[in-house]
Amino acid sequence: MIKYVSFLFCLLISHLSIAQSITGRFTKLAKQTIKIEGFRGLQTYPISTTTCDEKGNFKLVYTKSDYGVGYLISEDKKPLFVILSGEDIEIVGDALSAIETIHIKKGYENLCFEKYSKEHPKREQALNAWIYLEQIYAVDSLFSNQTAPNKAIQLEKKRIKNEDEEYLAKLPSSAYVSWFLPIRKLVSSASIIAQYRPKEIPSTISAFRALDYTDQRLYKSGLFKDAIENHFWLLENCGKSLDSVFIEMKTSIDAMMVNLIKDEKKLNEVTDYLFDLLERHSLFQASEYLALKALNETSCTLNADLAKQLESYRAMKKGNIAPEIQFAGNSFLNGVKQSQFSNLSSLNTPYTLVVFGASWCPKCSEELPKLIQNYSKWRKNGVEVVYVTLDTDKSSFEQAVKTYPFFAYCDYEKWESKVVKDYYVFGTPTFYLLNNKREIILRPNSIAQTDAWVDWVLVQGNK
What we know:
Blueprint: H1 2-16, E1 20-26, E2 33-40, E3 43-51, E4 57-62, E5 68-74, E6 80-84, E7 89-93, E8 103-106, H2 108-139, H3 147-169, H4 176-188, H5 190-196, H6 201-209, H7 216-219, H8 224-236, H9 242-260, H10 264-280, H11 284-295, H12 304-315, E9 330-333, E10 336-337, E11 351-357, H13 362-380, E12 383-389, H14 394-400, E13 407-410, H15 418-422, E14 430-435, E15 440-442, H16 447-459
Helix pairs in contact: 2-3, 6-8, 8-10, 9-11, 10-11, 11-12, 13-16
């Protein structure tokens, strides 16, 4: 009896671990390594690796845990995306880089994927061409009275859209492609919609807001990052005023959070990536809103490092009073050691740009020459610079500041420095633009952005 139960148990385990195969032949990949990798949110992971034989034949395996989208990749680094839905797949061709030679021979969902991937771009191209003609026939008096061509354009537009929608509608609801292809279509459409079909922007934004970032199908699709990026790119390029764009972004953030607060891991992953994305695009109102939204959420715990980074927006947001800086270490003015100014307030200038940098920071090395170059113009317009360095070597610092025309300060305590902690500095360079009351009026992300502010507010404003 015990042996019989053990046999059944082993049989069950064997059944659960059955792997599906990806086989085929790439004639130009003889004896080369080929592998399949999968997606987990923003990351990828290896699934299976093999070496093609002398004729280019190969066999890779995947399991139920890899359900979603994977990509084949060889030594030429050209990926081929495949649907990992539990079916055996057979692919033939010359090489992954020779996409025109590749053909799916086995695997229903991958055949559907291949067919749609070839036909949909052609439909999009044709649709955009008809829309272009439609605009000409609508506004140009040479064509506007031609009812027959106008009617034909409308009919062809409708036919193309219907053909695309009917193909997707006929896919079995249980198939992964029936979910994946419409989402892929949505994510890839952002730039086309913005450029050629602006009337579709509101419905496209609504579709992005309806995405559930806790859905495992999206998490494993390879579209996770693109969905975030293209959603906010479309908002940024929707043709509205910047104030209206920020309102739209806040609405989108709220929509994303509805499901994310139920999944702590994905909340941290999406928040971290989106915050960095918004910061890189100088969309500070939106990144501040995201930071405060995430910090105020009590149902999930934020990663400690992420929480510290976001906390800077609560403590150091625009309008807050920046902490005083006591110049307790070495401070220099115009390359000469000084004792006249004991703290930040004693500089008594209309505006102060506080810059946190370090000699070991590659980005700081790029920004520092621009800072030196612009300083003279800024100073004439009432902007002083206080450069706080996180260096630890006294002689190196004192040698470097000889070339600095502005105020420079270092206490040699790096990340443990009181001023670094007071200003919530988690990376270099970090910038804060303050007025004469130490009120934070801008959190620039570069010297270029600061210079643009000086030109717009101070130089142009004084004319």
